[in-house]
Amino acid sequence: MVQIGQGTYxxxxxxxxxxxxxxxALKKVxxxxxxxxxxxxxxxxxxxxxxxxxxxxxKLEGLVxxxxxxxxYLVFEYMEHDLAGLAAGVGAKFSEPQVPLFYAHFSxxxxxxxxxxxVVLL
Length: 122
Prior knowledge:
Elements (H helix, E strand, L loop, with lengths): L1 E5 L3 E7 L6 E7 L6 H16 L8 E7 L4 E7 L5 H6 L9 H22 L3
């Protein structure tokens, strides 16, 4: 297991599924002394990710707990790069044909999020 990213409430690791041999991304969730807000935020993130089924959104494949460290891991399909990482890269340049593709991906993603969170709830 190799750490590949870090956020406010989690670390992300590249790992291999011992059953399937597939490479996955494990997001180890940190609960700051089990504060109600951090638990609430994580529960909401898990619910949203489980409902999302879109080709432009990384898939949440499951949840794993560790009895040793009392940690929760979110298991995602592994992606070598994400769009934000590519765009933030020093000297990142996109070819002319790539620009409309990225725009289309963003548009579809935001439509999906908007539709699920605002239109459906009305």
